[in-house]
Specification:
Elements: H1 3-13, E1 17-22, E2 25-29, E3 43-47, H2 50-55, E4 60-61, H3 67-78, E5 81-87, H4 97-105, E6 110-133, E7 138-147, E8 152-153, E9 164-165, H5 180-201, H6 205-230, H7 237-265, E10 268-292, E11 295-304, E12 309-312
Parallel strand pairs: 3-4, 5-10
Antiparallel strand pairs: 1-2, 2-3, 5-9, 6-7, 6-10, 7-8, 10-11, 11-12
Helix pairs in contact: 6-7
Length: 315
């Protein structure tokens, strides 16, 4: 992709409008939310050729390394994007629906299948970029899948390779789902836990203990030496107070340095959302009448045609 096409795509993704007025020259209308990045302007002219830029001094020359180019690239890299994916499955159907439900509920339940139909379920896929800052910093990418039919995290589906299309191959009614915000909140809580676990696992316990013991040994020796001064003859009350105050200051400094070492050794995690994806997966909705000791009730189960598994919508 050439530079001009790349910049036009970025601006249009931002919600801006681009009009190519002549060779390598474009008039751009930006949303008001971006005007602070362009000196308060929402209407700008961009030139993609040095000769064109000379002929149009009012234009911002866009080339590799230019301020306008860097600003637009930062926006493209740091602004979350959304996508819709229709997951491809081998077949849409389920065999022995009653038996599958029976295995979940147990043999003591009496199950009557009332209806079966194909529907579309939605998984929210949240792609986070994470940083870990310490003596040795590193960066990772994590995908958190949320089954929006149940509203629960789904780590299993994230372990497989899925194939998808941009357009739905078949029109199915949609299963009831939680809100995208609710799914995002679940994913956000999970990424905080994931990054905390990674940061903890990245700590070298031997190095942590060695550095902590080194600081403790150094300051404890200074404190012991000061304690010896107190035992000397002729030490005045004023001198004793000074020694005790110094020891207290040494203990505070020891604690501060130990905390600083731990802060530097334990990576500090940060994360930001890069992409939000709605993954549409064909399901078989199975409505059942279930009888047990507690009575009778109607329950809805879903057979996941991708993962070949059954789950209940208990929402």
């Amino acid at each position: 992709m050439d530079l001009q096409r790349l910049i036009v795509n970025i601006i249009e993704t931002m919600g801006g409008v681009v009009e190519i007025t002549e060779y390598a020259l474009a008039r751009v209308l930006l949303p008001d939310s971006y005007k602070e990045l362009f000196q308060g302007r929402t209407e700008i002219t961009l030139a993609f050729d040095s000769d064109v830029a000379e002929e149009h001094p009012e234009a911002d020359f866009v080339t590799y390394g230019s301020e306008t180019m860097e600003t637009l690239l930062d926006l493209a890299l740091n602004t979350p994007h959304s996508d819709v994916q229709y997951i491809v499955v081998n077949s849409v159907g389920v065999t022995d629906a009653k038996g599958r439900v029976q295995r979940i509920l147990g043999e003591r339940c009496k199950i009557t299948v009332l209806s079966e139909r194909p529907v579309m379920g939605i998984w929210g896929v949240f792609v986070f970029r994470t940083w870990f800052t310490s003596f040795e910093s590193f960066e990772e990418e994590h995908r958190i899948w949320v089954n929006m039919v149940t509203g629960e995290l789904d780590p299993e589906i994230g372990d497989i390779t899925v194939f998808f299309e941009r357009d739905t191959p078949t029109e199915y009614p949609y299963a009831h789902t939680c809100s995208f915000f609710e799914a995002y909140t679940k994913a956000q809580t999970q990424i905080l836990q994931v990054t905390a676990d990674i940061a903890k696992a990245a700590v070298d316990p031997i190095k942590m203990r060695r550095e902590t013991e080194r600081i403790q040994h150094y300051y404890e020796e200074l404190i012991v030496e000061n304690e010896r001064l107190l035992s000397r003859k002729g030490v005045t009350d004023e001198r004793s107070d000074d020694i005790r105050l110094k020891n207290e200051a040494l203990r505070i400094e020891m604690t501060r340095q130990i905390n600083e070492i731990q802060h530097n050794i334990i990576p500090t995690p940060r994360s930001e959302l890069m992409h939000g994806i709605t993954a549409h997966v064909p399901l078989i909705e199975i409505k059942c009448q279930v009888s047990d000791r507690a009575g009778e009730n109607q329950r809805t189960f879903y057979y996941d045609c991708l993962m070949k598994r059954l789950f209940e919508n208990s929402r």
